[in-house]
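Narrative summary of target 7.
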Amino acid sequence: MEKKEISIVHLQIVKDSQVPYGEMKMDTPEKAAGAIRNFLGAVDREHVIICCVDNCMKPTHIQIAGIGTINACLISVPEIFKMAILSNAAGLLLFHTHPSGEVKPSQEDIAITRKIRDAGKMLDIPLQDHIILGAAGDYFSFRESSFWDAAA
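Modeled conformation, tokenized:
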């Protein structure tokens, strides 16, 4: 008879670096977009960034969850929430870049926002906002738009 084994594992977060942010809260889309823009800098491809926040909307962890092409970046809901769960996040902010500069959300952007909001409700880690960052400093906040209610 073949002896079967199960792996004993542990999970941990490994800190790559630190970014000073002072006492800033990400309690408005404008503040959140500015903070992530400073973290990310200018990019020529789509990036998806996850920012975990505490109960006071202060950032606790930031992760680049995906780097795509000039007009697309595939992400999965489990990958989005992996960091949030490991870091005991009270909430989640999702960002992605549109290097073209056009910040209007695509149908795919709307659909993934809906999926992530639903998953966040189930996990009790609410999606606080999904913000699209344009190339010229502009942004689109789902929370500030009619899409937020439509995504519910």
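The radius of gyration is 16 Å.
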